[in-house]
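Entry for the shared binder. Reason: the reviewer on the internal report wants the predicted structure included alongside the sequence.
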Amino acid sequence: VMAAECSFDVVSKIDLAEVRNAVTQAQKEIAQRYDFKGVVAELELKEDQAIVIHAENDLKLKAVVDVLETKLVKRGVSIKNLEFGKVDPASKGSVRQEVKLLQGIPGDKAKALVKAIKDAKLKVQAAIQGDQLRISGKSKDDLQEVQALLKQNDQGLELQFTNYRG
């Protein structure tokens, strides 16, 4: 009789409901704050995939980003899954920046995670399945070691471990 395989999935997901709540809270705070009175300072969530920030200048942009990040962290959304685009000039001397919401593990990062697991010589298999990884092995201890390893080598992503079987 073969030992049963244990497995889990490694995913990188953002709770979009919490992102929407955080953006709404940030918009409210910006509307009320004295240092934003009469200046361009706006946030907009685009199709649950990006947040567009529009501000009077780089300094105000930074202030808006700080407000947004604070609200996201308070709602349990990792800012590791934000990818800040470059700051572009916008109308009347203002600036605009797009912040992508990263969902899933990109291919290059998935390969790097699999390589790290293989290099650790643990008795597990790591398979890339779309935008997530499936880790399987006979020993729950090995699987826990993989989790510890991935927490240290997270490729700049917020990783979650789901779908336990075993």
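Summary line for the report: The helical segments are 16-32, 58-74, 107-119, 140-152.
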